[in-house]
Write a structure and sequence with these properties.
With 46 residues, this protein is mainly α. The chain is built from one helix and no strands. The protein has one domain (13-45). 30% of the residues lie in helices and 0% in strands.
């Protein structure tokens, strides 16, 4: 199940044993991408 950032959900177990695993993936923003590219460009010799 995919839930976009900011959406809440509630899980309900139907049996005796239940496992819940949450995995987060950090999002790369355009600003962070441009910032990283500028840092790489600054490190390159002219």
């Amino acid at each position: 199940m995919y839930l976009p950032r900011g959406y809440l959900h509630a899980a309900k177990a139907l049996g005796d044993v239940c496992a819940h695993l949450t995995v987060g993936v950090p999002a790369v923003t355009r600003y962070a991408l441009v910032e990283a590219l500028c840092a790489l460009a600054a490190d390159e010799p002219a």
